[in-house]
Design brief:
Lipocalin, 13 strands, 2 domains, 3-stranded antiparallel β-sheet
Length: about 240
């Protein structure tokens, strides 16, 4: 009898530790090594910023921001750190500290400065490191111009419960201006999820390459703000 109890105890310990090891071995860690087409959002003055990030295996990051107005595209070389499943680096030009958890299915995270907080989201890209040169402005194809920007309807449930909120969705835009691969970054309340996604998928952008010559997709993000004063003012 004692032998059976001992065998049962050993089996229980083995099963528990075995399942724990199995779960740990299946924890997904996203490797940032490679090239990424990114959007940086949350700055009220600049709006959405677009950048290329190229992570090298030696801990070096090449960051290239999209040109704005008459400015030229510029690239800087930074160092990044990976600790466990956490990635971090600092942009010395803007004073922002970036970090991301590498347990998701795409590269995304938040940035912080002394007075601001925002986020960033990337999709994989394929380009040669040679684009990080003085002729880089030729690599960017201009801003994404909206063609149809649908607005969400305010959920009746949220009106009854006096709820306000915010939803941030990042996605990709094909060369023909179609929205694909939406990813929810922030949802303040689940009641706002469906109308936000519906409005996003009814929106589209102007084609950004002629004749659909490329299968590339560019990242973008949209914020949906739900405020009851907008609703009440519409009834006045």
């Amino acid at each position: 009898m004692q032998l059976l109890k001992l065998i049962s105890l050993i089996f229980f310990i083995y099963a528990f530790t075995g399942n724990k090891v199995f779960a740990q071995s299946n924890d997904r860690i996203l490797s940032p090594i490679g090239q990424w087409n990114c959007v940086i959002y949350g700055n009220p003055l600049l709006g959405d910023e677009r950048a290329y990030l190229s992570f090298r295996a030696d801990g070096i990051l090449l960051m290239t921001r999209e040109a704005r107005d008459n400015e030229r595209s510029n690239s800087i070389q930074l160092e990044y750190i990976i600790e466990g499943n956490r990635l971090s680096f600092s942009d010395i030009q803007t004073g922002r500290n970036f970090n991301a958890q590498l347990g998701g299915f795409t590269l995304s995270g938040e940035w912080r400065s002394r007075i601001q907080l925002g986020g960033w989201w990337c999709s994989p890209d394929e380009f040669e490191e040679g684009i990080f040169s003085n002729s880089l402005e030729n690599q960017f194809v201009g801003r994404l111009d909206p063609e149809i920007m649908a607005s969400p309807s305010y959920p009746l449930q949220a009106i009854r419960e006096v709820l306000q909120g915010r939803v941030v969705i990042c996605f990709e835009v094909t060369t023909m201006g179609e929205v694909i691969n939406p990813t929810f970054i922030e949802v303040s309340d689940e009641v706002f999820r469906a109308p936000s996604l519906d409005a996003l998928m009814r929106s589209r952008y102007k084609p950004w390459l002629p004749n659909n010559q490329s299968e590339l997709a560019r990242p973008a993000c949209r914020s949906f703000i739900y405020r009851l004063d907008y609703v009440y003012n519409s009834f006045d």
